[in-house]
Design a protein that fits this description.
- The chain is an alpha/beta fold.
- 35% of the residues lie in helices and 10% in strands.
- The chain contains 20 helices and twelve strands.
- Strands 1, 2, 3, 4, 5, 8, 9 and 10 form an eight-stranded mixed sheet that branches. Strands 6-7 form a two-stranded antiparallel sheet. It has a two-stranded parallel sheet with strand order 11-12.
- Helix 1 links the parallel strand 1 and strand 2.
- The radius of gyration is 24 Å and the shape is globular.
Length: 527
């Protein structure tokens, strides 16, 4: 039997599996109680197997082992590059050791069941009131992943279809009072042997032990939707578990499944998320310093990557015969004039990266107000990628088109001279496939979904400013995922993009944490 917690000071333990860089766990850790401003949750264990995501996670756990606002100056020195990570950790051995105990690099698979079990038991101790959170990897459920893997004869045997069973294993053995499971929207239509995976997953989460043994042992869970809380759990349509993040203050149209399970002996129904407006993309990232894209080599030949050469590449737009190509098109005259002004402009961004930090302006948007840090004096992750000269011109054209037309262009809106030499271009121009291959993120709207694909190319994540002529930086993507500016992503830039794209928006996670804290508060003592 656990002790009755003092709700004014007690922090509920959180076990976070498939943790990635820690977005879901960060949202829980960021929730403070109104009365005392003490933390409502403590991340006692986060498990992640990817080395770069784990490195990010470990650093954040180190940061979180200090009270709010009391991280050491050396942490900020590390962000500036003034000290290395080893020096930072050696200066605060106790906190570093605690972080290494709570952020663990480990694969969740049958061979590691005993190790995981021991870790959870050790970290939980006698705590009865705690929460399990996590999102099993989703490549096999995502729409993009399935389209790429469908030709693989072993697709239905892919282990990633069943990684949720590792999550289920933990539920079965450790009986958390509450759990939160996150996954991609594609789970709603994913099938294995012609049967919907979502139906199987919901049945297994409701009766986790019977999923392994075929026998019920009394452990069962009521499953709840966060976006449609009024629907009885036993009647819930799988689609009711879909959460549209932009409806809950996140500056991104991110649609994901969230399933809340409450152990059946706890007769408490969770509240739902409260809809409210999201800030626009411009409100979220416009105060970050302007940076220009780089210029990558083409055809194996070296090309200078300097401002003069970069401007010349964009200037080639003025030599293209847009008037003839756009004749009769909507906005043709205004677009042609804007392109000519852009080509002649000298007001381009000049730097490839910037570490100059300025806090976001005071705002009523809670999602933005959580980004800043008054002690932070350096910006991390704000470096533009390089693009070929031909893509620079496409980006410049696309961003200019978006300014004029107030929408991102389709391939059919591009003049022929700017179309890429790809086999699917004709189909794209007809609107049959990949018609939005070059997608501008519109300043006055929320962004489209930040996905892990941002790590591969920037065509779907073009910045709205033609004078920067680039895709979004890691820091911009992180802001759209509502990660605080003092959150540093480790590893090479590609790995950083991948981490950000796979994460849960921190602001959304914090709202979910508030709902879970309310359930645990009302439950009182839990055995």
């Amino acid at each position: 039997m656990s002790r009755e917690p003092d709700l004014h000071t007690f922090s509920y333990p959180v076990v976070d599996v498939f943790a990635g860089p820690g977005g879901l766990g960060e949202g829980f850790a960021a929730l403070n109680r109104d009365e005392t401003h003490s933390r409502a949750f403590k991340n006692i264990l986060s498990i992640e197997r990817d080395k770069h995501a784990h490195s990010t996670l470990l650093l954040r756990h180190f940061f979180r082992h200090f009270p709010d606002g009391e991280a050491p100056d050396e942490y900020y020195d590390y962000l500036r590059g003034g000290v290395c990570r080893e020096e930072l950790f050696s200066s605060y051995c106790q906190e570093a050791k605690a972080a290494e105990a709570s952020a663990v690099r480990l694969s969740l698979k049958p061979d590691n069941h005993k190790k995981v079990s021991r870790l959870i038991k050790k970290r939980l101790g006698k705590s009865g009131s705690w929460v399990l959170v996590g999102g099993p990897p989703c490549q096999a459920y995502s729409l993009v992943g399935r389209s790429r893997m469908r030709s693989d004869p072993d697709f239905e045997k892919d282990e990633r279809h069943f990684l949720y069973r590792e999550y289920l294993q933990i539920i079965s053995e450790h009986r958390p009072p509450v759990f939160v499971m996150e996954n991609v929207k594609g789970l709603l239509s994913a099938r294995v042997r012609e049967k919907l995976m979502i139906d199987r997953i919901l049945a297994d989460l409701s009766n986790p032990v019977s999923a392994f043994t075929g026998k019920k042992n009394g452990l069962s869970y009521s499953l709840y939707s966060l976006s449609e809380p009024d629907i009885p759990s036993e009647e819930a349509d799988p689609r009711s578990f879909l959460v549209r993040a932009e409806e809950f203050g996140v500056p991104q149209a991110r649609h994901r499944i969230f399933i809340v399970g409450v152990r059946s002996d706890i007769d408490i129904k969770p509240k739902g998320l409260k809809p409210h407006d999201a800030p626009t993309l411009g409100e979220t990232i416009s105060e970050l310093p302007r940076v220009r894209s780089g210029l990558s080599s083409r055809g194996g030949s070296r090309q200078a990557d300097d401002l003069v050469t970069w401007k010349k590449e964009i200037g080639k737009l003025s030599k293209m015969r847009f008037k003839r190509a756009l004749r009769g098109a909507e906005h043709a005259s205004e677009l042609t004039g804007s392109i000519e002004m852009l080509s002649a402009s000298g007001d381009f961004a000049t730097e490839r990266f910037s570490n100059r930090y300025r806090r976001p302006r005071p705002t009523n948007h809670a999602a933005i107000s959580m980004l800043g840090d008054s002690r932070l004096n350096v910006l991390t992750g704000h470096e533009a990628r390089s693009h070929m000269g031909s893509d620079l011109r496409r980006y410049a054209y696309a961003a200019t088109f978006a300014e004029v037309a107030k929408r991102s262009p389709k391939l059919s809106d591009f003049p022929e001279a700017l179309l890429p030499n790809h086999r699917n271009v004709d189909e794209g121009c007809k609107g049959e496939m990949f018609s939005d291959r070059f997608r501008v993120q519109l300043r006055e709207k929320v962004s489209t979904t930040i996905t892990s694909h941002i790590s591969k190319d920037g065509h779907y994540f073009i910045h709205y400013d033609p004078k920067q002529c680039r895709s979004l930086t890691v820091r911009e993507a992180a802001r759209l995922q509502t990660f605080p500016d003092n959150y540093k992503f480790e590893g090479p830039r590609t790995a950083q993009y991948h981490q950000v794209g796979n994460a849960v928006p921190v602001y959304l996670a914090r709202q979910i944490a508030e709902i879970i804290a309310d359930v645990l508060d009302r439950a009182g003592e839990i055995s």
